[in-house]
Design goal:
6-stranded antiparallel beta barrel; Elongation Factor Tu (Ef-tu), domain 3; 9 helices; 3 domains; conserved putative lor/sdh protein from methanococcus maripaludis s2 fold; alpha+beta
Length: about 550
């Protein structure tokens, strides 16, 4: 029988009552809300304004006429393509200003409506002035950019409503004029001494420097002594010459005596023959010794064979050395080994690598003498332009510091193109009488292909280009008349020489015509805009 054990009862706990208080929300200030809404209101207002403006303008950008100063014209009388009033538009109403008779493309000059062949097209008062030189020949001189015969932009005319609108557009004009121009090829170049007048002097025989008379920068005359070399070989050659002279005179005297004695039969023929043979050998030896000393650069008197040997010995001691130089030698100089180093021509000592007492040999350069009055200019012409270079063409050269400008002519053209630079070397002989040009000086040369004193030119800003043609804008000859349309004609041109200010026009304009300079890109933009077929508002109801 099991006894049951009851668990003790847990006391019951009553949780305390919690009272819930209602949440108190902070009061939101109305003006903060309104302030935060202002940006959104502004954005939506702006969008609404854009939508309203777009709806009432047909969603179109402002017309070009507003920038050209023609916004005062009523919108119902407006040609949107040509940016002038419909009632004045000469393109839409050709009867207002009929176009000239078309002549087509000129193959000779490479322009449409050629004013050279048809001067009646020129926009000048009175008789047109034709070019004073053969522009066709100038065009053919070099390869030039060409105009397309299919390009039709020149058929357009650009019209303004008034002279005031032209001025507001920033357009300026200038007169086509005649000006001296040169067509050139530019090439980098270097000045050098004429190598045919540059001498690198060394001793003819090994020895030591006895005395130096000239140094770097000093002028020298032809044949002037620069230094004296003490060389034992010189003394040996002089001694051999003196010995050969004595032998020659002795053999000659013997032969003459035997010939006199042989007349009476006192001397056998064989003895005379041997004496004459010995005389010939002595003569050959003398000639050989004389040539050996001549090979060293010495001048030998012609009557040496009959001279007194003692006098010859004295003369050979300072052979070929002037008295003034002998006087400059140190006192007590007795040597006969001196040989002079002479300047082969007049010029300037540009390098000297010798001092007195120095031992030298034949491989050492002692002096470099150059004639600075003769220079060579070597230009490196680009391969694609080398075909235009010819012998005799004039050349101007300006040093890199722009302080010197000289001229000459092409005297030599290399037969080969440099494999590394792909350029052709051209040589120009330059006169430098005052010696201001420097050896190894760099600069830019211009080979003048053609020079025209009466070239037809316009300012550089006048010429505008498209991928197919070059143009200028010519002002109508009646432009300044009060009741005349304010028109600029589009004219194809052929470009020639250029400089810093002007461009030569070989075809397309004549002297006296007025062309647009500043502002011509604005006219080109309007011309291209019209050619794209923007649509003409004057034909709309």
């Amino acid at each position: 029988m099991s006894a049951s054990v009851s668990a003790p009862a847990c006391p019951t706990t009553t949780p305390p009552k919690v009272e819930h208080q209602p949440l108190v929300r902070p009061r939101r200030r109305w003006w903060l809300t309104a302030l935060k809404a202002i940006p959104n209101i502004a954005v939506f207002s702006l969008l609404g304004g854009v939508m309203y403006f777009g709806h009432h303008t047909g969603w179109k950008m402002p017309k070009m006429s507003e920038f050209l100063g023609t916004t005062d014209v009523a919108t119902h009388d407006w040609c949107a393509e040509h940016l002038v009033p419909e009632s004045q538009c000469i393109e839409c109403k050709p009867e207002l200003y009929p176009k000239a008779k078309p002549f087509g493309f000129c193959r000779e000059h490479g322009v449409a409506e050629c004013v050279i062949h048809h001067p009646e097209l020129a926009q000048v008062e009175g008789e047109p002035q034709l070019p004073k030189y053969d522009t066709t020949q100038a065009i053919a001189l070099v390869a030039r950019s060409e105009n397309s015969s299919r390009d039709a932009l020149h058929k357009n005319r650009i019209q303004f409503t008034s002279i005031e609108s032209v001025n507001r557009s920033g357009i300026d004009v200038d007169v086509v004029q005649e000006h001296s121009m040169a067509e050139t090829i530019s090439a980098n170049g270097q000045l050098n001494f004429d190598p045919t007048h540059v001498a690198h002097l060394s001793a003819r025989v090994p020895g030591s420097v006895a005395i130096v008379f000239k140094t770097v920068g000093e002028k020298v005359a032809p044949g002037e002594i620069l230094a004296l070399i003490d060389a034992s070989q010189v003394g040996q050659v002089k001694a051999q010459l003196l010995q050969a002279l004595v032998q020659l005179q002795l053999r000659k005297t013997t032969v003459e005596r035997l010939r006199t004695a042989s007349v009476g039969g006192a001397v056998a023929g064989k003895v005379l023959l041997d004496a004459e043979s010995a005389f010939q050998e002595a003569k050959i030896g003398f000639i050989s010794s004389r040539q050996a000393i001549a090979n060293l650069g010495f001048e030998i008197p012609n009557d040496l064979e009959s001279a007194d040997p003692e006098k010859v010995a004295d003369d050979l001691r300072f052979l070929d050395i002037p008295t003034s130089v002998i006087a400059a030698l140190p006192a007590g100089t007795k040597t006969a080994n001196l040989i002079p180093v002479r300047a082969p021509f007049g010029g300037l000592v540009v390098a000297s690598e010798v001092v007195a007492g120095e031992v030298v040999d034949v491989s050492a350069t002692l002096f470099t003498v150059a004639d600075p009055s003769r220079m060579w200019l070597l230009l490196n012409v680009r391969q694609e332009e080398a075909m235009y270079v010819r012998l005799g063409l004039p050349v101007t050269f300006q040093t890199d510091d722009h302080k010197q400008e000289v001229s000459g002519s092409v005297s030599w053209i290399s037969p080969a193109v440099d494999g590394k630079t792909r350029s052709l070397q051209v040589r120009i002989t330059i006169a430098n009488p005052d010696g201001t040009l420097r050896d190894k000086g760099y600069g830019t040369g211009k080979i003048i292909l053609r020079k025209e004193p009466n070239a037809i030119v316009v300012p550089r800003d006048s010429v505008q280009s498209t991928p197919e043609s070059h143009f200028v804008f010519v002002r109508d000859k009646n432009f300044l008349k009060e009741d005349a349309p304010k028109v600029f004609h589009v004219r194809q041109v052929r470009v020639g020489a250029r400089d810093d200010q002007f461009v030569e026009l070989l075809a397309g304009v004549l002297p006296g015509e007025v062309v647009v300079t500043k502002g011509s890109p604005v006219l080109l933009a309007q011309l291209l805009r019209s050619s794209l077929g923007a649509g003409c508002g004057c034909h709309k109801d």
